[in-house]
Design brief:
With 262 residues, this protein is mostly beta strands. 6% of the residues lie in helices and 31% in strands. A hairpin with a 5-residue loop joins strand 6 and strand 7 (195-200).
């Protein structure tokens, strides 16, 4: 250590020992200039206290669409308009008039029968018609009333049977008044697998061929013809007989149909 430093220390020591009371403080010096900003971040401060709870939010309204805003209230109903003037009363409806399609016209006259319409149909009903005789007799139920000075087409469809014999049955056509004529064709069964066709050109005349020639046989006979009526109206009737012996029967449901053609 140099002598100069020793002298300085000695002076300081003497000054402390003999110094009097401190003098009054001198005036404050001017503020020094701000130091340069530090580039070293200071230590992290303590966490602040929790803030107070915020006020409750707005209570949502049921049905409100908060994306599009709350629906406004319905406006008040407007004032009712003045009633219009009453219209004129309509026309009183007429019974039977169709107001959608116009007035209904009068019923037209009944047209003439069509080509396939029969004027009358007669049937065997209640019980079968049976005969054991060898002469033609009327089949009960198969009668049609015909007008004078007229012409008729006729057709008889017969469900027939015979008793336990093989001599067969025959058929015919009759008219109850004079002055008529008839022509007829007969088609029917002779056995279970065979049939025959025959004809007549006179009233009350049996056909030439015997039908149902198998014992106790049932079958079908169809008679189609044309009858011309003179000045006297009367009854057209289908007839039958039994050849030799036994019974000929025309069953319930057999029918006679007639159609006026002139």
């Amino acid at each position: 250590m140099g002598p100069k430093l020793e002298i300085l220390k000695l002076r300081a020591k003497i000054a402390r020992a003999v110094s009097g009371a401190p003098g009054p403080a001198g005036p404050a010096g001017k503020d020094g200039k701000d130091g340069a900003a530090s580039t070293v971040p200071g230590p992290k401060g303590e966490a602040g206290r929790d803030g107070h709870d915020g006020a409750n939010g707005y209570t949502p309204v049921k049905g409100a669409d908060y994306r599009d805003g709350i629906d406004g209230k319905d406006g008040r109903d407007g004032t009712n308009g003045t009633n219009g003037t009453n219209g004129t009363n309509g026309t009183t409806p007429v019974k039977g008039v169709d107001y959608f399609d116009g007035a209904k016209g009068d019923k037209g006259d009944t047209g003439a029968p069509g080509a396939e319409t029969w004027n009358a149909i007669a049937q065997v009903s209640d019980s079968d018609a049976t005969t054991t005789g060898q002469s033609l007799v009327n089949v009960t139920g198969l009668t049609a009333v015909l007008l004078a000075n007229s012409q008729y087409e006729f057709e008889a469809v017969l469900r027939v049977s015979t008793s336990a014999v093989t001599t067969g049955c025959k058929y015919g056509v009759n008219f109850s008044a004079a002055g008529a004529s008839a022509f007829a064709v007969y088609t029917g069964a002779t056995t279970a697998t065979a049939g025959a066709i025959t004809s007549t050109n006179a009233l009350a005349t049996a056909d030439a061929t015997a039908f149902l020639t198998t014992s106790a046989m049932s079958g079908l006979v169809v008679i189609k013809g044309f009858v011309v009526i003179g000045a006297n109206p009367g009854n057209l009737t289908i007839q039958h007989l039994k050849v030799t012996s036994g019974a000929s029967t025309v069953k319930i449901g057999s029918m006679l149909k007639v159609r006026k053609v002139g």
